[in-house]
Amino acid sequence: MSVWKLVKLDFERNLAHFGEVGIGLETTGDRICSDSLFSAWVSIYARLFGKEAVEELLQLFPTDKQPQLIPPFRISSTFIYRQVGENTIYYLPRPLKFPINYPDDDLAFFKAYKKLNYLPLEIWKRWYQGTGFTTDDALELKNHTPDKTQEKLAKAETFNYSKACKIQQLPKIAIDRNTRATNIYHTGFVQFDWDKNPAGLYFLLELSPEGEKLADKLQAALHLLGEEGIGGERSNGAGRFKVSWLKLPENWDKVVNFQSGNHHTLISLFWDDDITSDLLKNSSYEIQERGGWIAESQLRRQMVRMFSEGSVFSTLPQGKLVDVKPKEFTKHSIYRSGISLSLPIKVQEK
Asked: Measuring CA to CA, which of 11, 109, 134, 284 is 20 to 30 A from 50?
């Protein structure tokens, strides 16, 4: 039986730069996807415990050569949490299928609904594991304005996701090595609120019995990663965080162990080289390309297309590691994680 943890990353006043494929330095995301978190975590694990230890760890994960293996752990992507009074609001990606009771004729509030890319856990749970969508929800979406703060969706912080952080561009100077000429450019940074309503990132971790044996090492590596930082611009102090490794709270325990679902929604990225028609039947999904540079190298990793968070499948997705090493790189394998983590949900079935 697996054990779940909730891990919070508190960036305090530190800036962070989370780049994405095809986006320049001027822009940053507000969170880290599961594959990037996995890569950073495993890299620091190798530095802390050595080459042999990390090779032993990676051999426990399913790949195209060993698809039958059960991974020692699965991780979600990171998502925003926000402290409001005594309550911690955890946001989850909105599944790409409508909740039960969602009306067919929704033109009056369709745009408002679609803008809710992330839902607070309270609303996510009601819509996708509880009673579903209500006429009151429809009316509030249709008529919502920022000054209306006492209705159900507003009280649950449904419309305040963007208040958790600010994204800004800071000027930097590049100096040509040969001519010493200078050039000004801008880099995008995200900064989470640390004052009135402290915010940060969190992710869910599912440990198998084999993974539980590695929990202390994984936790130590994550603390070291926090000291060194995650994302870009780490040499300038960006991306540093403090770790809270927590037992899964009761409200989350009910979410992950929900027994009445008819579909599964991704809270991580997902890749597999053996996608069956059964998996795609009655599914709703989005695909994104994942790439990037090899650390301490001028080579790019091979591009991989993955299913995005919020994608919905009628059968449980599993996932594998994929070797993205380019042909000209011969030192070692370079893995990107397509190991999925999903939550059970109830959605409308046609």
From this structure: 11
Take residue 10 and report the two structure tokens written for it. Answer: 């508190």
Task: Work out the pLDDT band at 60, boundaries 50, 70, 90.
Answer: very high
Per-residue pLDDT, averaged over 90-111, amounts to 91
Bridge partners (DSSP) of residue 29 are none
Q: Are 171 and 25 in contact (CB under 8 A)?
A: no
Residue 22 confidence (pLDDT):
46
Amino acid at 61: F
Task: Give 202-212 pLDDT, tens digit per residue.
Answer: 999 999 999 99
What lies within 8 Å, CB to CB, of 123 at 6+ separation is 153, 156, 158
Handedness of CA 140, 250, 37, 302 (dihedral sign): negative
Q: What is the pLDDT of residue 293?
A: 67
List, as one string, the DSSP characters of 96-139: SSPBTT--S--TTTHHHHHH--EEEHHHHHHHHHSS---HHHHH
Q: Please report, as a single letter, which amino acid is at residue 325.
A: K
Whose CA is closest to 203, among 319, 317, 81? 81
Q: Are 31 and 257 in contact (CB under 8 A)?
A: no
What is the rounded end-to-end Cα distance, in angstroms, of the chain? 34
Looking up tokens 């694990």, which residue turns up? 45
Strands (E), 50-198: 73-75, 79-84, 87-93, 118-120, 165-175, 182-192
pTM for this model (two decimals): 0.92
Could you tell me which residue, 319 or 178, shows the higher pLDDT? 319
